[in-house]
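Q: Hi! Curious about what Pilus assembly protein PilM looks like structurally. Here's the sequence.
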Amino acid sequence: MAIDFSQLLKKRSPPLIGVDISTSSVKLVELSQAKGKLRLERYAIEPLARGVVVDGNLENIEAVGEAVKRAAKKAGSRVKNVAMALPTSAVITKKIMLAEGLREEELEVQVESEANQYIPFALDEVNLDFQVIGPSQTSPGDVEVLIAASRKEKVEDRVAVVEMAGLAAYVMDIEAYAARSALERYTQLLPNKGEGQIIAVFQIGANTTAVSVLLNGQVVYEREQAFGGAQLTSDIARTYGITHEEAETKKRTGDLPDNYTTDLLLPFVENLSLEITRALQFFFTSTPYSRVDLLVLAGGCALIPDLDKTVQERTQVNTKVVDPFAGMEIATSVRERQLRHDAPALLVACGLAMRRFDE
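A: Let's find out. The predicted structure is below.
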């Protein structure tokens, strides 16, 4: 079966689990829906060794496949179909205008013709897909079409790892789009559903932080910054003479010496807050916008003690840690205390799991 970026946008999908493969872990989320209410059925996070995934590339497919298998077993899901995502950097996207009223096969021909202008690879080397967004706001008689393309090996590697785990890749999304789906639902819970608010989202990963700014559900700015939680892990490993894997585990559990907070954690929080402040300043100087109303932290580092308070003090912007499951029902089998700790890292996986309910 061909894997593409939007094949399920036109019909309701079968049961799906969202599987997010990041630099440091595999994250799995399963949602259900009853009477219009979403419910978190189960989730799992399985760590990955250093070097297994580098810059979005699966350097050790077998190790990633085993991690997906362990995550699926840990979660206890019976669902086999998977929604996955490619790193935003691995996908070329472009919006184009095409004449309204074209048949599907005519659209495909036009898209391929246009894609040749924007994709620096031969078309037989890429997975290419498109989605008609709707009538053009600026060109009457035309429709706006989103083209998405990625090198075939990027897609095939991700398909291979879920198949190794006995699962089936059904949807291939883009990480930024999956996160945006979960964020869109999150903003609906804000006062006035976030209307008119400029919301800056910082997804703090291991090595990079994805910055996106939203206004009324539309992305007005996107950028990646080269900083993340791996720096703290490296500091822990170097300071205490332990392996990177041991440092990652101890960072998560808090099993570290008394001087850890003052010597390593607080300086890291200060540096991270400074990077976020700089990113905001770059947003202000490179766009027409001069304010941010809400700053949202996501990713594994988001729940570092007092990070939100420090960021709010430095930026003077109201700061919250995202909970993509806010307002959802939670299955009794889910440990809510652990979920509160893990939730900010599950933004992309949650957005992928939501693909189950696409029309």
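A: A fun detail: The first strand starts at residue 17 and ends at 21.
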